[in-house]
Amino acid sequence: MEIPSKYEAKTIENKWYDYWMKNNYFHSEPDERTPYTIVIPPPNVTGVLHMGHMLNNTIQDVLIRRARLKGMNACWVPGTDHASIATEAKVVAKLKEEGVKKADLTREEFMKHAWEWTDKHGGIILEQLKKLGCSCDWDRTAFTLDENLSASVIKVFVDLYNKGLIYRGYRMVNWDPEAKTTLSDEEVIYEERQGSLFYLEYPIEGSDEKVTIATTRPETILGDSAICINPNDERYTHLRGKKAIVPLVGRVIPIIEDEYVDIEFGTGCLKVTPAHDENDKVLGEKHQLEVIDIFNDDATLNSFGLHYEGKDRFVVRKEIAKELEEKGFLVKTETHINKVGTSERTKAVIEPRLSDQWFLKMDDLVKPALTAVLEDDEIKLFPKKFENTYRHWMENIRDWNISRQLWWGHQIPAYYFGDGKNDFVVAETIEEAVKLAQEKSGNTNLTAENLKRDEDALDTWFSSWLWPMSVFNGIMKPENAEINYYYPTNDLVTGPDILFFWVARMIIAGYEFKGEKPFTNVYLTGLVRDKQRRKMSKSLGNSPDALKLIEDYSADGVRVGLLLSSAAGNDLLFDESLCQQGKGFANKIWNAFRLVNGWEVSETIEQPEASKIAIDWYKNKLQKTLVEIEDHFSKYRISDALMASYKLVWDDFCSWLLEMVKPGYQQPIDTITLKEVISLFEDNLRILHPFMPFLTEEIWQHIEERTSETALIVSAWPEITSYDENLLKEFEFTAEVISGIRTIRKEKNIPNKDSLSLSILNNEKATTAFDAVITKLGNIDELTYVDEQVEGALSFRVKSNEYFIPVAGAIDVEAEIAKLEEELKYTEGFLNSVRKKLSNERFVNNAPEQVVAVEKQKEADALAKIETLKSSLAGLK
Questions:
Q1: Which residues touch 195 (CB under 8 Å, ≥6 apart)?
Q2: In a domain, 127, yes or no
Q3: Percentage of the residues of the chain whose pLDDT score is greater than 90
Q4: CA–CA separation, 743 vs 350, rounded Å?
Q5: Structural domain span for residue 836
Q6: Same domain membership, residue 685 and residue 559
Q7: How far apart are alpha carbons 105 and 111 in whole angstroms?
């Protein structure tokens, strides 16, 4: 088969991906082999491939392909998440463009539009992952709104409710006015922002007195129910029992006392707005204050907003501050830095809001998940440093607000049959709900028409926390063959930003619903940043087009580029030149194969001694590297595993082995050597395949005709055996000798084609096993061992061994002597300056130990160089 001169990635990638798919290599069914299972962190159904996905899925593919090569039954389950907030926002925006409001649609009508949107845009990202080479079991592709997965979510909700762990409560929640839904505490990102502190005067009823209040949100005075002072604050004892008048509003409110008030903050007086602050709500309940909600669900002001009704809260903030100043209520304004909660999804500023919501009690549920990670070591986090983050979150956990004011998602299975607070039932089906409602109400005439289902949907994470179980139908059929075989899964690869959102919750769910862990290892990747350490984002314009990168540098090149810079848990500083490096590596391997494939072979010539020792050396080097790679993988140091493979192939195989066995110009190679080299090349391809699947499969299939059973993707990982460390050290010594010869050639402009003689003063008693290699790579026509230095020769040292190369006739001896004498004089002067420093007791006693050690090393290096220079001069004279 003719080998193209250039590696054509585009054609090759499509060809082999189609071939792998056609032969069903990615698909897994339970059998007698050891399972190796990964579930994909499901990306948003309407998402597109970005750099974070590229990194995360490359790592997963490396792990899954390696497991396949190691003979395991590798199963990588792909899928997508319905992403309630993000997807509903996109559908609402699309409808708005068409002149349709969500409020004008029934739930069924809206869901029809949402499904149309999902069918059109959903799954694009999964198709893009194929371009990256991801070997997912596409037959198992799951979606969190699939029938079985949806049924699992409802079943779990009912189960937890019946256990008394899910309850409905009127609580202060985090309200996202853009998505018009509540959020859990974990979905709120706090940012430090510069704002203002407004000092407002409230008149005291029935007097000319005034009390000054400091607030960052003057618009909320419209919802004030009281002013609170600390009973221990002597400044305000005269206000006890009095009432204040809210500026602009004219509402008379009580002045209450509570030690909650911080005497040191602001003026020491607090305005109390129970509808719009968690702490104010607590005070309001304690002191039985009126609750006045001034906002609509989009954070515009409602009818309590006076003449500001219908205006946005931030517009009102500016306008009301101006009106308060004009009317003499605003005393002063100060710059103030405070933490502002923003929506993790929409980035909108969160509004605290009182609302009826569904909550999941977490105190007891969290205990097995804490023990599994922090005490029993059942689940390991890589890097280990994230255990502290995990501990902090889990030990400070609050009840999970699981309801969302959305339609796109899993509708809460609660059914209302009356107006009372407890006039509802929770059931998996409407039939079951009717039955329960009849029992609870005592009204046997109730029908499905009398029941109204809760409008809210469940938090998206409430479905994805079941992912490792629900994709194998482990909730609906807890003892089915697949869940029993594939669960617990092996590795989870994800970002640390969802350690709590998803990872911790999956662990909680695993112990609650299966009684065991969902996975054994969690590999937490870093975030992808640019060279300036900025997080990649569309708004900054610093995030490259993932598919364009693949087009420019090949999938293998991009995979290598990403992994070379990605250490576990550390942020990846992405530089496009890394992909170029990956592409260059692919070309290096391709050209190495073309070189080997182009050699003529002779069955009559014997195997040269240099080739014999070279192959023996590389087999040992390969074994040592395999042990290193195993160690790296066991610690999830994927980039280190790649670098070890990279160095083995580029440095040891291409730069050394092939040079050592390469036949002379227009000369054939012996059959034994060629066979061994190809066998070693195949081992290299096996090691590289998880990282560079396309290139390796292409070369593998070129080496010889393969069947579907002998494709590289389903071949075997190289077997690990023992290796000879002494042989490897001897080669390192040999490599230095060859480097010394090449340096002399380069410095003295002696062409490589000109053969030289080499004499060795073997003070080190170094092995002679590699002499044939030295002879070949140094182009030495005569190699001898001597007992004393050789005259008329240049020399160099490797440890205490001296190597002499006679150069009479090859160089200008007189000019070389002059040059060496000048270098000797300079080096002796340098040695004197170093020794002068080392003889200074003050320097030696006061300088850091490391600094002194550096100077001593300089002394030793200078002495060695002087000895070599003197030896070379003696030889030339």
A1: 216, 335, 336, 337, 338, 340
A2: no
A3: 69
A4: 68
A5: 751-876
A6: yes
A7: 9
